[in-house]
Amino acid sequence: MTTTRRFMCGLAAVAAALLAPAAPAQTTAPPEGRLLASNCFQCHGTDGRSGFEEINGKSSTEIYSKLKEMQRKQPGTEDYGIMIPHAKGYTDAQLLKISKYLSTIR
To answer: Are 59 and 91 in contact, with CB atoms under 8 Å apart?
Structure first.
């Protein structure tokens, strides 16, 4: 094989490698509800044990029920403070996702 031919074969191999489609990046989606629950972490901590009421270890049903209760309250009428407007800012479907996610953190 001549030097020119080897060069051309090498150049063709490099061109093929550069033009080949890249393998899709494999990413793992965050757990459903995690992004919605990120606001909760400021007061309850990322482990659910910090700050105000502990949510760590509670069932999704218990968390959801509490959030729905807060959603029905009027600001200033109960002892939930900032939680009332927070709960009112989410749909039922979002509260369910938040509850399911928060019930998984340990």
So the answer is: no
CA atoms within 13 A on the CB side of 102: 28
Average the pLDDT over 54-62 and give the result: 91
Our measurement of the distance from residue 73's CA atom to the centroid of its chain's CA atoms, rounded to an integer in Å, reads 27
| Residue 84: other Cβ atoms inside 10 A | 20
Kindly report the number of other CB atoms within 10 A of residue 102's CB atom.
25
Output the pLDDT for position 48. 85
**18 vs 44, which has greater pLDDT?**
44
Reported for 48-57, long-range contacts at CB under 8 A and 24+ positions apart, including other chains, are 48/102, 48/105, 48/106, 55/102, 55/105, 56/105, 56/106, 57/106
Q: What phi, psi does 7 have (nearest 5°)?
A: -65, -45
